[in-house]
Specification:
Largest sheet: 3 strands, antiparallel
Strand content: 5-15%
Mean pLDDT: 82
Shape: elongated
Low-confidence stretches: 1-33, 94-98
Helix content: 40-55%
Structural class: mainly alpha
Strand order of the largest sheet: 1-2-3
Length: 487
């Protein structure tokens, strides 16, 4: 089946389809060479270049006129006209092979409707599309593809850097609109995460879509329940890099499909800034963290956070873990899924990469934690009775279902702030796990498989600074050993 962009109105005939790909083959150097047509018209030459058939089923032709210099012989004039025609043909080959006046917004629609759905995980597709809608379409959405070059992408990135933060947010007018005791039912009715509902009540602004769903759930108009705010200022470099990551594949795919000659993002410059030194927990801080985890009110959280530290799992892999993937006797867990939330529903997908599907060995402490979690869950299930939503998950909400990774991260950050610890993300416990293994001298290949990386190069690149520190320690140890004195 041939998928066509929705902006192409004329059906693609079989003959045109064959001709188009035959033409594409010739442009790549396959088959016979099609010469441009050169016809004399009085003192000038009419030049026509055939580019085969476009995706709309029509033949693509480009024409121009060449006037030779005065005083040249007819034979010389013809040779000059053919040389000009050759250069004109090369220029024409750089044009798109269908309607070159389409706009970027149409290309983006085509990419997400026809290509991305087969290549990206649902959550990645959703996030990338939102980035394009928010940060790219307002700037270049209405521009024609032929007018978008590297310089224009540079301008886009600079505009975002200076003043791209223009997202609307909404703050709840009165916390009493969502009183204590109604938050969980409102969360279920609206499809908004319970933790987000609580944050909203605490005065933290939310995006318009979230505010609208909450307003609908409490039976109020949006403007009656929320105050509209507008965030200003420039985007940070990290966000602009995310924009670049979402934008580049759209143009790359257009190049592969022979809709464009080159990707204008490839050589564009991302605005620079002084890189912030990222903070991580060292071995001493990890031990200290384990000491105050029991302060958390939800008894599941200390076990979940400790397991992340012991196993190096991604938080989405931990929240997607089911009891059927836990083997207490062999002391292993099998990572099969990643958990994400979209449109108010929890969903399971395959892990980040093929290598992420793996078996992770558990230390005795982790096995004990899982046994405690099993016992707590059995008691909790009996307490709530028919209200329990059984997904078979190891870590759950108060009434079963899955546990939100955003909830874990928020509670984790609150605990760190209370004890004046570095402001890190829950995912950074994976870095701590890797650093501990590296410093213990575990082979890189073993660490790579443990973390679910594609190969050892990925591990070495991500944790290059840790390896460098370990090498320095090794050098110092050898130096001290050789410089030591007997007895």
């Amino acid at each position: 089946m041939v998928f066509l962009p929705k902006f192409l109105k004329i059906p693609l005939t079989l003959r045109a389809f064959r001709a188009m790909y035959s033409s594409a083959n010739l442009r790549k150097g396959g088959g016979a060479n099609i010469m441009p047509s050169v016809k004399r018209r009085g003192d000038t030459f009419r030049i026509m270049v055939s580019l085969g058939y476009g995706m709309d089923g029509r033949q693509i032709r480009k024409t121009t006129t060449y006037t030779p210099p005065e005083g040249v012989t007819p034979g010389k004039a013809e040779k000059l006209a053919k040389a000009f025609a050759y250069e004109f043909e090369k220029q024409c080959r750089g044009m798109v092979n269908f309607n070159e006046n389409i706009r970027f917004s149409e290309l983006a629609d085509w990419y997400y409707d026809q290509i991305a759905v087969h290549k990206l995980k649902p959550m990645t597709l959703y996030c990338n599309r939102k980035i394009i809608d928010t940060y790219v379409l307002p700037y270049i959405g209405n521009m024609k593809l032929k007018d978008i070059n590297t310089a224009r992408i540079d301008k886009l990135f600079n505009e975002l850097y200076r003043g791209g933060r223009k997202r609307e947010t909404y703050r709840l007018r009165n916390p009493e609109l969502i009183p204590e005791g109604t938050r969980r039912p409102i969360s279920r009715k609206s499809g908004v995460n319970l933790n987000t509902v609580k944050s909203c009540v605490d005065g933290i602004p939310v995006l318009k879509d979230t505010a609208q769903r909450l307003a609908d759930a409490i039976g109020r108009k949006l403007n009656d329940a929320f105050i509209r705010e507008e965030a200003g200022g420039g985007l940070d470099v990290g966000t602009i890099k995310r924009v670049r990551t979402a934008l580049s594949p759209i143009f790359s795919t257009a190049v592969k499909k022979e809709l464009l000659l080159k990707n204008p993002v490839t050589h564009a410059t991302t605005p620079g800034s002084e890189p912030k030194e990222k903070e991580f927990l060292d071995a001493g801080q990890c031990r200290e963290l384990l000491g105050f985890l029991p302060e958390m009110t939800n008894p599941q959280l200390p076990r979940a956070i400790e397991l992340l530290l012991y196993t190096g799992l991604r938080v989405g892999e931990l929240t997607a873990l089911h009891w059927g993937e836990v083997d207490m006797e062999k002391a292993t867990v099998t990572v099969k899924y990643n958990l994400y939330r979209l449109d108010g529903e929890y969903r399971l997908s395959t892990p980040k990469t093929k290598s992420s599907v793996r078996v992770v060995a558990l230390p005795p402490q982790a096995v004990k934690l899982l046994q405690e979690q099993r016992e707590w869950q059995d008691r909790r299930r009996k307490e709530v009775g028919d209200k329990w939503i059984d997904r078979g998950a190891v870590f759950t909400g108060q009434y079963g279902e899955y546990m939100s990774k955003n909830y874990i991260n928020l509670q984790f950050k609150r605990l760190l702030k209370k004890h004046d610890f570095p402001d890190i993300h829950i995912h950074d416990l994976r870095h701590a796990n890797a650093s501990l293994l590296i410093n213990m001298g575990i082979p890189t290949k073993v660490i790579s498989e443990h973390l679910g990386h594609c190969d050892t190069r990925t591990t070495e690149n991500i944790y290059a600074h840790v390896f460098a520190e370990t090498l320095a320690q090794t050098s110092d140890a050898i130096s001290q050993a050789l410089a030591g004195t007997d007895g």
